[in-house]
Amino acid sequence: MTIPDALLREGLMRWRAAPWRLYPTRSLPPLTLVGTGQSLDYVARQLGRDPAQATAARPVPAWRLGPALQRHLEQDGIVLARLPCPLATRLCPMGLLMPELVDSVIDVAEERWLRSRSARSNLQRIADHRLTWRLSTGSAAVERFYTHCYLPYLQARHGSGAALRSRRSLARDAAHGGIQEVCLDGETVAAQLVGFGPDELQCIAVGVPGDGELARESGAIAATTAFAIELARQRGLAFVNLGGSLPLRRNPVLLSKSYWGARVTLRPRADHDLLLAWRVWSPSVARILTTLVPILRSPHGLVSVEVPGLRPLHGLSASLQIPPGASSRDLAQMLMRDQRGLSD
What we know:
The protein contains twelve helices and 19 strands. With about 350 residues, the chain is of the alpha+beta class. The protein folds into two domains: about 5-100 and about 270-344, no CATH class; about 105-265, Gcn5-related N-acetyltransferase (GNAT) (Aminopeptidase, 3-Layer(aba) Sandwich), CATH 3.40.630. The strands form four sheets. The protein has a seven-stranded mixed beta sheet, with helices on both faces. A six-stranded mixed beta sheet has the order 4-2-3-6-15-7, sandwiched between helices. It has a four-stranded mixed beta sheet with strand order 16-17-18-19, with no helix packed on it. Helix 6 (about 140-160) packs across helix 7 (about 165-175).
């Protein structure tokens, strides 16, 4: 079967992407971005690069993308691509494959959060402010959440770049759950949309009303996690899924979920992966890996680039030790072939 035939079967024959070129700086080599999306923009900004300054090249079809990226790598640059999962899987021999998002799942029975000083401090803060919660259902509750909590929260955090879900999609999710409101003296200071699965409570979207001042003062955002655990217990659910985060060990959102003892897991339904590739090892590549500390796909589960001194993450199967001078293709082959270079 030829590559175009395979891509046709996977529905990617019409897929096109224009590589975006970011020129070198004093500390970084040329960076080529492929695809679009908030995850790609975030990673680029973590590397100190502004995607808005990129120069677009001619769009490349899926079956020509591999050779096109190889040409960029031969210029001693670095490639960061957001690709549909089937295409990313086909190109993974040339680089490190990161899931676009990873889930963070709490096992309610384990009570791992009780081992975390941060989580215990948040629980005490919630008790000190006498926060309570209630579960609301129906279209009026969804509209109130969307207008007064969800929109203000995301727009305040991300501005015009906020990736907002529609009322209709949130209402579909709420039909299998509801809106859990965090209350201070009867007033809603934070809220989240939750869904109920066969054995899992899913935290789908969160928001705070107004400027969020009361939520910050009272610890209401942390209370959404604590109260989700309480609600899961009431309904006899074994797990709380805190939702997706970018798979970077230094990502503050991912870290905040880990303080509650959440286990990092692959999302069961994923559309895209991120591919990170380079040809020649350099101090710039080392700086990128230690800045991002990516969490990677492997046949052995989720693994992370090894960086001393980082807080352990529950759910990672191993750490990837990078041999001096390794290209991304070398590391990809190492991950695929065996567990050499991996440590518990």
